[in-house]
Amino acid sequence: MYPSLVGNDVLNAAVTEKTVEFCLKRSAMLSHIPHHSGNESLKKMQQLISLEEVEKLMDETADAAEYQRQISDLLSGGLSDADESEVSCLRCSNTPTNKTGCMV
After folding, report:
1. 49 within a domain of the structure (yes/no)
2. Is 9 within a domain?
3. Could you tell me which residues are beta bridge partners of residue 103?
4. SS3 at position 103
5. Which of 10, 15, 47, 94 is least buried, going by the fewest C-beta atoms within 10 A?
6. What is the pTM of this model?
7. How confident is the prediction along the chain (104 residues), in pLDDT tens digits per residue?
8. Contacts of 101 (CB under 8 A, 6+ apart)
9. Cβ pair 9, 68 in contact under 8 A
């Protein structure tokens, strides 16, 4: 399996984790909302999850989705020579100077 495909799988798992986390929080929030509407319901929602938490989660999900799109674009278009060289250097980065002359 190619390293980039493994990275894509990890990214997919991270996006899925964030989505599940958001759904769990939303489910918990909705289960505590009384059947009537109004300011009381809104206040209870705000007690369960803050606007900042929702915004942060949405930003993280958008960032992960963008990163996944970039990886997909790279995979569909193949890697350039510079990208291949960088991947090669990353593979052998366990030594300060490797056989290919890459500095890490």
Report:
1. yes
2. yes
3. 97
4. strand
5. 94
6. 0.37
7. 455 556 677 778 888 888 888 888 888 877 776 666 667 777 777 888 888 888 888 999 999 998 888 888 777 776 677 777 777 777 776 545 545 555 54
8. none
9. no
